Fold each of these.
Amino acid sequence: MFKIGCHLSSANGYLHMGREIISLGGNTFQFFTRNPRGGKAKPFDGEDAESYNKFAKENGISVMIAHAPYTLNCGASEKSKREFALRVMQEDIARLEHIHGAMYNLHPGCHVGQGADKGIELIADILNHVITSDQTTLILLETMAGKGTEIGRNFDELARIIDKVELSDKIGVCMDTCHIYDGEYDIVDSLDDVIAEFNRVIGIDRLKAIHINDSKNPFGSHKDRHEKIGEGYIGINAFERIINNKYLRELPFCLETPNDARGYKKEISMLKNLYK
Ligand code: FE
Ligand code: FE
Ligand code: ZN
């Protein structure tokens, strides 16, 4: 079944997001676990979580993505920043353990001049402190555009993090189409090669979700500016191939395009029409 949805505001809780995505024609979604800039999460509402779980099961929402604040930096040089990231992740995951089908998506971090090797080491170290053997929530490392000192600019950097994680069965990858196109993976003209490369370097079984975004910038720009589907450099024909690709078609696809609810509804409907 085609799993398609979009990023939603979590301001009104889980059940509200479930209802909203169904009303937009989708069956999966993403939200920020707290203010994207970090900060304190709202108190956990167990009743809302219960209601959501029931609603999700009844309405075929089998999986969704909880996105960690993008300002967390597990690769920071200051210990206090890394400890903050660790605390936030532990708290977020503890909550997500109570939510049906949740996966926890994370930008791996930035090495801020320490070099990629050091960054990878610091990120893996935090993951080794965060992950517990009894957690059921999968952590997804997102493929990044390679802006600034971002780690995860290529498949190799993600593979090197995963290699250092002891309980690596709790780690998956979320592929962001805008980011990897910006990061010089040609999903427009060589999708099969890109997937083969992912499989060789990381292993296709690790791939658990797709952020489906067009790019405002040309191939290899390392800029990370999302565009509406079909209005950027990736283009609608490439997206038709992506959603129907035999290795990708069963994964959840989540839009993070610059849209309001109406725009998302239109994109969801357009992509559903292209899904064979
Ligand atoms: Fe992201
Ligand atoms: Fe993304
Ligand atoms: Zn992005």
Amino acid sequence: MCGIMGYVGENAASKIILEGLSKQEYRGYDSAGIALRCPDGIESAKIVGRVSELVRRVEEMPSECASAASGIGHTRWATHGGVTETNAHPHESVDGMVVLVHNGIIENSRDIRSTLESQGVKFSTETDTEAACQLLAVLYKKCDGDALAALSKLTAYLTGAFALVIMIRDRPDEIWCVRKGSPLVTAFDGDACYCASDPTALLGYTHDLFFLEEGEMAALASSGIKFYGFDGKERGKSSIHLNWDSVMADKGHFEHFMRKEIDEQPDVLRLTIDTHTIVTNVAMDKSLTLPKGLMKRVRRVQFVACGTSFYATLVAKDIMESLGSDLDISAEVASEYRYRNVNGGEDTLAIFVSQSGETADTLAAARIAKSMGTHCIAITNVRGSTIDREVDHTLLSMAGPEIGVAATKTFMGQISLLTLLAMSLLKDRGVLSANDEARLIGGLRSLPVSQNAMLEREGEIRALAEKYSDSKGFFFIGRRECVPLTMEGALKLKEIAYLPSEAYAAGEMKHGPIAMLDERLTVVALVPDTDLREKTLSNVEECRARNAPILLLASDGDESARTYADDVIFVPRTEPELFPFIAVIPLQLFAYHTARTLGCDIDMPRNLAKSVTVE
Ligand code: F6R
């Protein structure tokens, strides 16, 4: 939530910062601002709206500012204080000494504010951030202009989560970065220093990045970066090479990032399989060396995540169960796990799934699990992210940068890696049969071709999305392996088309929700040709009898499915457990085309941000 970009070097900072902000706009997009070191001091520009609007505002700044060689910028997802120009970042201390941007929430901002106000400091915004800004100015003065000492004191006062990027009026050659709880990455390309919330903003300059750790600060100058702990002691730091291609973060010929990312899924799957299998065998051990005997020892596997990543864990749970796991397996949303009295310890393996690796609830859950002695594995898309650095083992999903706010290809990266991990764990335990191993690896290998066949049916799905876009709401129903998909299908429609959509296990409809059905509430039923086909079709019949229009997803060749539905989307056949790998594509495309028909902002849906770094 919120994107930050900073630059200090010799080139025009405004252009670099604005480009960096537009690459991170998915992190928050209700307002934006920039501060530049102009010849007469630090000048700011702020707007309510998108970065494109900020670009226009910067063009109106004095011409000397256009060539300013350092500055900081911010794109906001409001937490404290309404969406107004005043509340937009950067914020400036009342004496004009400190200008800063912030991502996170300063939890004790009210206390700081009232203390400072009682000392006569005048606040001008409603934000939590301003408390940090005004306090730093006071501390800087008290420390006689020693920035490091003032920042050490500031970090000792502040509670909550904060990535701060700071300019100080009388220190023209520096930008300061402070990190606790919210991500911040820095880089030096030989001529200039950069910092950002998200590494994708820096890939056009260098692929060697320095991710700030919890409790770390950095001083950026055109000559390089110095790193410090919150205690003010300088520390060494190694860079991490991120081999993402910067064009991966471009839209190419697609109208939206989301549509491009849907298309990339067969490649994500292929890459994951090629990396982690040998012929018909799982080969996760190349990248995952668990302590000897761990899998024999554990009794319990806990999957923990939020949102779409959570639904990916439900797919994995189902696969483990279908393979005859003898473990006690649970999947739980991180925001609940962290506050429940969960079991843990040496007999427990917890698997945390987070695309960004920065989701506040997932991180908090992982810290709790670790503190109980639970062995923790993370699956994330971002090397160097907080979760990557904090758990015992990380498996990197191979989706590449995902820019659309709605997760698509990262879901595919997660379910493919989770499936292989699940198989590998059961194999270690001696539970996976050779037959199941060969069957599922063979199935996974043939999926990209089937996924491409599914993508080719986009025209049909678009027509159906247009037809059903005036529904007053949707029910997604299915059984067993389809249940996680009903949730993902409903979530995609909610987040990008803003349509009421519910997910229900098909057998549950008659226990209440069926009362809602009428001719304006569409039921999307997932009915692959498995042992549960007839049972699910009976539930479909019950919905049809209440006049609900039925859109059915059925297996290729299941012609009789047509008699149960108004419309059918046929899905290529695969192993039963792998149905979600193909069927998620028509659900993503259905949501995409519904949102497009309704004129919604697909890549940046209202009220959302890609990386949820607050609780
Ligand atoms: C939905 C979506 C969110 C995320 C959730 C977790 O399309 O993107 O539901 O899945 O916020 O985010 P990560 O995976 O970064 O922890």
